[in-house]
Amino acid sequence: MSEPRARHCVDRLPPLGLGLAQLGNLYRETTEEEASSAIDTAWGAGIRYFDTAPHYGLGLSEQRAGRFLAGRPRDQFALSTKVGRLLIDNPDGATRRDDQGFDVPAATRREWDFSRDGIRRSIDASLARLGLSRIDIAYVHDPDDFADQALHEAIPALEELREQGVLRAIGVGVNHSALASRFVRETDIDLVMIAGRFTLLDQSALEDLLPAARDRDVGIVAAGVYNSGVLSAPRPPRDAKFDYADAPADLLARAHRIADICETFGVSLPEAAVAFPRLHSAVVSVVVGARNGAQAQATADRAAATVPDDLWRTLLDEGLLREGSLTTAPGE
Protein backbone atom coordinates (compact mmCIF):
# COMPACT_ATOMS: atom_id res chain seq x y z
CA MET A 1 0.00 0.00 0.00
CA SER A 2 1.15 3.53 -0.74
CA GLU A 3 2.06 5.97 1.99
CA PRO A 4 -0.95 7.71 3.57
CA ARG A 5 -1.98 11.11 2.27
CA ALA A 6 -1.60 14.30 4.25
CA ARG A 7 -4.84 14.47 6.19
CA HIS A 8 -5.33 18.18 6.85
CA CYS A 9 -9.07 17.62 7.38
CA VAL A 10 -8.25 15.43 10.36
CA ASP A 11 -6.04 18.08 11.91
CA ARG A 12 -8.90 20.58 11.68
CA LEU A 13 -11.57 18.33 13.20
CA PRO A 14 -12.99 19.95 16.37
CA PRO A 15 -11.93 18.08 19.52
CA LEU A 16 -15.49 17.71 20.81
CA GLY A 17 -18.52 16.56 18.86
CA LEU A 18 -22.22 16.18 19.54
CA GLY A 19 -23.75 12.82 18.67
CA LEU A 20 -27.24 13.18 17.24
CA ALA A 21 -28.69 9.66 17.56
CA GLN A 22 -31.15 10.94 20.15
CA LEU A 23 -32.41 13.53 17.67
CA GLY A 24 -33.68 10.47 15.80
CA ASN A 25 -35.90 9.56 18.79
CA LEU A 26 -33.54 6.95 20.19
CA TYR A 27 -35.57 4.86 22.67
CA ARG A 28 -38.20 7.61 23.06
CA GLU A 29 -39.47 10.78 21.43
CA THR A 30 -37.23 13.82 21.33
CA THR A 31 -39.39 16.88 20.76
CA GLU A 32 -38.59 19.50 18.14
CA GLU A 33 -37.90 21.95 20.98
CA GLU A 34 -35.46 19.55 22.63
CA ALA A 35 -33.69 18.84 19.36
CA SER A 36 -33.37 22.52 18.50
CA SER A 37 -32.14 23.30 22.01
CA ALA A 38 -29.50 20.57 21.83
CA ILE A 39 -27.91 22.07 18.73
CA ASP A 40 -28.40 25.70 19.75
CA THR A 41 -26.87 25.09 23.18
CA ALA A 42 -24.00 23.08 21.74
CA TRP A 43 -23.27 25.85 19.28
CA GLY A 44 -23.36 28.46 22.02
CA ALA A 45 -20.96 26.36 24.07
CA GLY A 46 -18.48 26.22 21.20
CA ILE A 47 -19.18 22.71 19.89
CA ARG A 48 -18.60 22.65 16.14
CA TYR A 49 -18.74 18.97 15.20
CA PHE A 50 -22.05 17.14 14.74
CA ASP A 51 -22.45 13.42 13.95
CA THR A 52 -25.56 11.81 12.51
CA ALA A 53 -26.61 8.86 10.32
CA PRO A 54 -29.54 7.68 8.17
CA HIS A 55 -30.00 4.84 10.67
CA TYR A 56 -30.85 7.31 13.45
CA GLY A 57 -34.62 7.57 13.35
CA LEU A 58 -34.91 6.49 9.70
CA GLY A 59 -33.55 9.84 8.53
CA LEU A 60 -35.12 11.99 11.26
CA SER A 61 -31.78 12.83 12.87
CA GLU A 62 -30.34 13.99 9.54
CA GLN A 63 -33.41 16.07 8.80
CA ARG A 64 -33.25 17.76 12.18
CA ALA A 65 -29.51 18.31 11.92
CA GLY A 66 -29.94 20.04 8.59
CA ARG A 67 -32.87 22.10 9.80
CA PHE A 68 -31.29 23.30 13.03
CA LEU A 69 -27.84 23.93 11.54
CA ALA A 70 -29.29 25.88 8.62
CA GLY A 71 -28.09 29.45 8.58
CA ARG A 72 -24.87 28.70 10.48
CA PRO A 73 -21.69 29.58 8.56
CA ARG A 74 -20.87 26.38 6.66
CA ASP A 75 -17.13 26.78 7.10
CA GLN A 76 -17.50 26.98 10.88
CA PHE A 77 -18.74 23.45 11.61
CA ALA A 78 -18.01 19.86 10.63
CA LEU A 79 -20.75 17.33 10.01
CA SER A 80 -20.42 13.58 9.63
CA THR A 81 -22.95 11.01 8.52
CA LYS A 82 -22.77 7.37 7.57
CA VAL A 83 -23.36 4.93 4.73
CA GLY A 84 -24.29 1.27 4.49
CA ARG A 85 -28.00 1.41 5.24
CA LEU A 86 -30.26 2.70 2.49
CA LEU A 87 -33.69 3.98 3.49
CA ILE A 88 -36.43 2.42 1.37
CA ASP A 89 -40.11 3.40 1.31
CA ASN A 90 -42.18 0.93 3.31
CA PRO A 91 -45.88 1.93 3.08
CA ASP A 92 -46.99 -1.27 4.79
CA GLY A 93 -45.17 -0.16 7.94
CA ALA A 94 -46.80 3.25 8.22
CA THR A 95 -49.01 2.14 11.12
CA ARG A 96 -46.17 0.39 12.98
CA ARG A 97 -43.19 1.74 14.95
CA ASP A 98 -39.56 1.13 14.08
CA ASP A 99 -38.19 -2.04 15.66
CA GLN A 100 -34.52 -1.00 15.86
CA GLY A 101 -34.61 1.28 18.87
CA PHE A 102 -36.06 4.49 17.46
CA ASP A 103 -39.53 5.83 18.26
CA VAL A 104 -40.55 6.67 14.71
CA PRO A 105 -43.06 5.27 12.21
CA ALA A 106 -41.81 2.32 10.18
CA ALA A 107 -42.95 3.89 6.90
CA THR A 108 -39.32 3.57 5.82
CA ARG A 109 -37.13 0.52 6.22
CA ARG A 110 -33.36 0.03 6.26
CA GLU A 111 -31.63 -2.05 3.61
CA TRP A 112 -27.98 -2.99 3.95
CA ASP A 113 -26.06 -1.89 0.86
CA PHE A 114 -22.30 -1.44 0.63
CA SER A 115 -22.15 -1.49 -3.16
CA ARG A 116 -20.74 1.44 -5.12
CA ASP A 117 -24.20 2.38 -6.34
CA GLY A 118 -25.67 2.01 -2.88
CA ILE A 119 -23.03 4.29 -1.36
CA ARG A 120 -23.61 7.01 -3.92
CA ARG A 121 -27.38 6.75 -3.47
CA SER A 122 -26.95 6.96 0.28
CA ILE A 123 -24.82 10.11 0.08
CA ASP A 124 -27.26 11.74 -2.35
CA ALA A 125 -30.16 11.01 -0.01
CA SER A 126 -28.24 12.29 3.02
CA LEU A 127 -27.38 15.52 1.21
CA ALA A 128 -31.06 16.01 0.47
CA ARG A 129 -32.15 15.36 4.05
CA LEU A 130 -29.40 17.60 5.41
CA GLY A 131 -29.95 20.35 2.86
CA LEU A 132 -26.20 20.57 2.21
CA SER A 133 -24.03 20.52 -0.89
CA ARG A 134 -21.18 18.64 0.77
CA ILE A 135 -20.55 16.45 3.79
CA ASP A 136 -17.39 16.75 5.82
CA ILE A 137 -17.05 13.09 6.83
CA ALA A 138 -18.77 9.89 5.70
CA TYR A 139 -18.24 6.76 7.77
CA VAL A 140 -18.98 3.24 6.58
CA HIS A 141 -21.45 2.25 9.30
CA ASP A 142 -21.33 -1.15 11.04
CA PRO A 143 -19.96 -3.23 8.14
CA ASP A 144 -19.31 -6.22 10.40
CA ASP A 145 -21.19 -8.74 8.25
CA PHE A 146 -20.15 -7.12 4.96
CA ALA A 147 -16.47 -6.40 5.55
CA ASP A 148 -15.16 -7.54 2.17
CA GLN A 149 -17.77 -5.66 0.18
CA ALA A 150 -17.25 -2.57 2.31
CA LEU A 151 -13.50 -2.75 1.75
CA HIS A 152 -13.66 -3.35 -1.99
CA GLU A 153 -16.76 -1.40 -3.03
CA ALA A 154 -17.86 1.06 -0.36
CA ILE A 155 -14.46 2.57 0.38
CA PRO A 156 -13.53 3.08 -3.30
CA ALA A 157 -16.91 4.75 -3.85
CA LEU A 158 -16.24 7.10 -0.95
CA GLU A 159 -12.75 7.79 -2.28
CA GLU A 160 -14.29 8.94 -5.56
CA LEU A 161 -16.65 11.27 -3.73
CA ARG A 162 -13.75 12.60 -1.69
CA GLU A 163 -11.81 13.33 -4.87
CA GLN A 164 -14.87 15.11 -6.29
CA GLY A 165 -15.15 17.35 -3.22
CA VAL A 166 -18.54 15.97 -2.14
CA LEU A 167 -16.77 14.64 0.98
CA ARG A 168 -13.78 16.05 2.79
CA ALA A 169 -12.88 12.87 4.64
CA ILE A 170 -13.91 9.22 4.79
CA GLY A 171 -13.74 6.53 7.41
CA VAL A 172 -15.42 3.64 9.16
CA GLY A 173 -17.66 3.68 12.23
CA VAL A 174 -17.70 0.45 14.27
CA ASN A 175 -17.89 -1.07 17.74
CA HIS A 176 -15.05 -3.58 17.24
CA SER A 177 -11.43 -2.51 17.03
CA ALA A 178 -10.16 -5.57 15.13
CA LEU A 179 -12.41 -4.82 12.16
CA ALA A 180 -11.50 -1.14 12.27
CA SER A 181 -7.82 -2.08 12.24
CA ARG A 182 -8.33 -3.98 9.01
CA PHE A 183 -9.76 -0.86 7.35
CA VAL A 184 -6.84 1.19 8.61
CA ARG A 185 -4.29 -1.28 7.26
CA GLU A 186 -5.93 -2.04 3.91
CA THR A 187 -7.49 1.28 2.79
CA ASP A 188 -6.76 4.98 2.54
CA ILE A 189 -9.31 6.20 5.08
CA ASP A 190 -8.86 9.37 7.10
CA LEU A 191 -10.74 8.52 10.29
CA VAL A 192 -12.16 5.74 12.43
CA MET A 193 -15.08 6.32 14.77
CA ILE A 194 -14.76 3.64 17.43
CA ALA A 195 -17.54 3.25 20.00
CA GLY A 196 -16.82 1.96 23.48
CA ARG A 197 -13.41 0.41 22.91
CA PHE A 198 -11.22 3.18 24.28
CA THR A 199 -12.82 4.29 27.51
CA LEU A 200 -12.06 4.34 31.22
CA LEU A 201 -13.46 0.79 31.42
CA ASP A 202 -12.39 -0.71 28.09
CA GLN A 203 -9.05 0.02 26.46
CA SER A 204 -9.05 -2.97 24.12
CA ALA A 205 -8.38 -0.71 21.11
CA LEU A 206 -4.81 -0.44 22.40
CA GLU A 207 -4.21 -3.98 21.19
CA ASP A 208 -4.66 -3.25 17.50
CA LEU A 209 -6.49 -0.15 16.34
CA LEU A 210 -4.61 2.66 18.07
CA PRO A 211 -1.12 1.46 17.05
CA ALA A 212 -2.28 0.93 13.47
CA ALA A 213 -3.89 4.36 13.39
CA ARG A 214 -0.70 6.02 14.58
CA ASP A 215 1.37 4.15 12.00
CA ARG A 216 -0.99 5.15 9.17
CA ASP A 217 -1.73 8.68 10.39
CA VAL A 218 -5.44 7.89 10.71
CA GLY A 219 -7.40 9.95 13.21
CA ILE A 220 -9.50 8.25 15.87
CA VAL A 221 -12.87 9.66 16.90
CA ALA A 222 -13.81 8.18 20.27
CA ALA A 223 -17.54 7.60 20.77
CA GLY A 224 -19.47 5.68 23.39
CA VAL A 225 -17.20 7.10 26.10
CA TYR A 226 -19.79 6.32 28.79
CA ASN A 227 -20.06 2.66 27.69
CA SER A 228 -23.87 2.88 27.40
CA GLY A 229 -24.30 4.75 30.65
CA VAL A 230 -22.17 3.15 33.36
CA LEU A 231 -19.78 6.13 33.26
CA SER A 232 -22.39 8.83 32.74
CA ALA A 233 -23.12 9.53 36.43
CA PRO A 234 -20.75 10.37 39.31
CA ARG A 235 -21.72 7.06 40.88
CA PRO A 236 -23.03 4.22 38.68
CA PRO A 237 -26.36 2.84 39.92
CA ARG A 238 -26.88 -0.87 40.43
CA ASP A 239 -28.87 -1.13 37.20
CA ALA A 240 -26.27 0.72 35.12
CA LYS A 241 -25.78 -0.46 31.55
CA PHE A 242 -22.51 -1.46 29.91
CA ASP A 243 -22.56 -1.97 26.14
CA TYR A 244 -26.40 -2.00 26.15
CA ALA A 245 -26.69 -4.74 28.76
CA ASP A 246 -26.70 -4.83 32.56
CA ALA A 247 -23.21 -4.06 33.82
CA PRO A 248 -21.56 -7.08 35.49
CA ALA A 249 -20.90 -6.75 39.21
CA ASP A 250 -17.11 -6.79 38.85
CA LEU A 251 -17.21 -4.04 36.25
CA LEU A 252 -19.51 -1.95 38.46
CA ALA A 253 -17.06 -2.36 41.31
CA ARG A 254 -14.22 -1.23 39.05
CA ALA A 255 -16.20 1.83 37.99
CA HIS A 256 -16.72 2.72 41.65
CA ARG A 257 -13.01 2.35 42.34
CA ILE A 258 -12.29 4.77 39.50
CA ALA A 259 -14.96 7.12 40.85
CA ASP A 260 -13.31 6.98 44.30
CA ILE A 261 -10.01 8.14 42.86
CA CYS A 262 -11.65 10.79 40.68
CA GLU A 263 -13.34 12.27 43.74
CA THR A 264 -10.06 12.58 45.62
CA PHE A 265 -8.89 14.85 42.79
CA GLY A 266 -12.11 16.86 42.63
CA VAL A 267 -13.15 15.31 39.30
CA SER A 268 -16.41 13.54 38.51
CA LEU A 269 -16.51 10.16 36.80
CA PRO A 270 -18.22 11.59 33.67
CA GLU A 271 -15.63 14.38 33.43
CA ALA A 272 -12.85 11.82 33.50
CA ALA A 273 -14.70 9.66 30.95
CA VAL A 274 -14.88 12.53 28.46
CA ALA A 275 -11.26 13.58 29.04
CA PHE A 276 -9.64 10.16 28.98
CA PRO A 277 -9.65 9.29 25.24
CA ARG A 278 -7.78 12.48 24.31
CA LEU A 279 -4.79 11.24 26.32
CA HIS A 280 -3.84 9.06 23.35
CA SER A 281 -2.14 10.86 20.50
CA ALA A 282 -4.16 9.01 17.84
CA VAL A 283 -7.47 10.38 19.16
CA VAL A 284 -8.48 13.61 17.43
CA SER A 285 -12.04 14.04 18.71
CA VAL A 286 -14.54 12.76 21.27
CA VAL A 287 -18.25 12.52 20.39
CA VAL A 288 -20.90 12.51 23.11
CA GLY A 289 -24.65 12.22 22.52
CA ALA A 290 -27.28 14.62 23.80
CA ARG A 291 -31.06 14.81 23.61
CA ASN A 292 -31.63 18.39 24.73
CA GLY A 293 -29.92 21.62 25.65
CA ALA A 294 -29.22 20.62 29.24
CA GLN A 295 -27.39 17.49 28.14
CA ALA A 296 -25.46 19.40 25.48
CA GLN A 297 -24.37 21.96 28.06
CA ALA A 298 -23.36 19.19 30.46
CA THR A 299 -21.20 17.68 27.73
CA ALA A 300 -19.48 21.00 27.08
CA ASP A 301 -18.96 21.58 30.81
CA ARG A 302 -17.50 18.12 31.32
CA ALA A 303 -15.15 18.58 28.38
CA ALA A 304 -13.96 21.90 29.83
CA ALA A 305 -13.21 20.47 33.28
CA THR A 306 -9.60 20.46 34.44
CA VAL A 307 -8.36 16.95 35.17
CA PRO A 308 -5.09 16.83 37.14
CA ASP A 309 -2.27 14.82 35.62
CA ASP A 310 -1.83 12.94 38.88
CA LEU A 311 -5.30 11.43 38.47
CA TRP A 312 -4.22 9.53 35.37
CA ARG A 313 -0.95 8.45 36.97
CA THR A 314 -2.84 7.15 40.01
CA LEU A 315 -5.24 5.16 37.83
CA LEU A 316 -2.25 3.64 36.06
CA ASP A 317 -0.49 2.83 39.33
CA GLU A 318 -3.66 1.18 40.65
CA GLY A 319 -3.94 -0.99 37.55
CA LEU A 320 -7.19 0.69 36.48
CA LEU A 321 -5.76 1.87 33.15
CA ARG A 322 -3.71 -0.17 30.73
CA GLU A 323 -0.15 0.72 29.94
CA GLY A 324 0.00 2.66 26.70
CA SER A 325 -3.18 4.63 27.39
CA LEU A 326 -1.29 7.89 27.86
CA THR A 327 0.75 8.50 24.75
CA THR A 328 0.07 12.22 24.87
CA ALA A 329 2.08 13.70 27.71
CA PRO A 330 -0.18 14.72 30.61
CA GLY A 331 -0.84 18.43 30.56
CA GLU A 332 -0.69 18.77 26.76
From TrEMBL:
Domain of life: Bacteria
GO cellular component: cytosol
InterPro entries per UniProt: AKR, NAD(P)_OxRdtase_dom_sf, NADP_OxRdtase_dom
MF annotations from Gene Ontology: oxidoreductase activity
Domain NADP-dependent oxidoreductase intervals: 15-311
PANTHER family documented for this protein: GH17980P-RELATED
Descriptive protein name: Aldo/keto reductase
Organism: Microbacterium hatanonis
Organism lineage: Bacteria, Bacillati, Actinomycetota, Actinomycetes, Micrococcales
